[in-house]
């Protein structure tokens, strides 16, 4: 279905899209949808576990359990927010570099005859090594 949707795109829609972006989207970004199904249950499991464990700690310790759970929330929520933003920035940088590398490799493969004919293998090898 993705191929049919891509083939239906107009020329203006694909004008700003490089080959590297399309290949990266189809290979890497689509796999994230598969991973969502694995981790989707954590949305309801984690709050359930938190309430359940807070109850058990309450049974052993009493009111001090609420202080401990509150301290955990105050420590973990900001750290998770910061790590989420940092991961998002790093993932964007990786995606941009991957797009550039895939675009370069696609151009090299499409022009391999010219590269071989003029014996430009070494300069292009350096370009690929630099892109990696």
UniProtKB/TrEMBL annotation:
Q: Which GO terms describe its cellular component?
A: membrane
Pfam family, any one: ABC_membrane
Statement: the UniProt record of this protein carries the keyword Transport: yes
* Record lineage: Eukaryota, Metazoa, Ecdysozoa, Arthropoda, Hexapoda
The residue ranges of the ABC transmembrane type-1 domain are: 1-132
This chain's source organism reads Timema cristinae (Walking stick)
Q: Which InterPro entries match?
A: ABC1_TM_dom, ABC1_TM_sf, ABC_transporter_C-like
Q: Name it.
A: ABC transmembrane type-1 domain-containing protein
MF (Gene Ontology): ABC-type transporter activity; ATP binding
Keywords (alphabetical) are: ATP-binding, Membrane, Nucleotide-binding, Transmembrane, Transmembrane helix, Transport
